[in-house]
Design goal:
It is a single chain. This protein is an alpha+beta fold. Strands 1-3-2 form a 3-stranded antiparallel β-sheet. The termini are far apart.
Length: 106
């Protein structure tokens, strides 16, 4: 597999995860698999909005789904995605703390 292809796939993955709502949905799914209705209830978003965001995540291989009777249950496709998100959040928290220290010095 070419390195260029990996960069393109990485960019696609980052684009798919770039919306704050999709980040919120992912963090809920890190806890446990959920239905659209459960996610909508927890995020206070409409079911259609949640479904659209889940479709983007599913199309990019970030989440997968399984039908259980009338419901579709969504889960994170690869547990390493949770690790990546956690690491990114830690980096951002460190950056915010550093900025706050600089502001306090002013």
């Amino acid at each position: 597999m070419s390195e260029r292809l990996i960069f393109e796939l990485q960019a696609n993955l980052c684009r798919a995860m770039s919306h704050p709502t999709r980040q919120e949905i992912l963090h809920l799914l890190f806890e446990k698999p959920k239905t659209v209705n459960e996610i909508a209830h927890q995020t206070h978003l409409g079911q259609s909005s949640v479904s659209r965001h889940l479709a983007v995540l599913r199309q990019n291989g970030i989440v997968d789904s399984e039908r259980n009777g009338q419901e579709i249950i969504y889960r994170v496709a690869n547990p390493k995605i949770a690790e990546v998100c956690s690491l990114m959040r830690n980096v951002l928290i460190e950056q915010v703390n550093e900025r706050n220290k600089l502001i306090e010095k002013l």
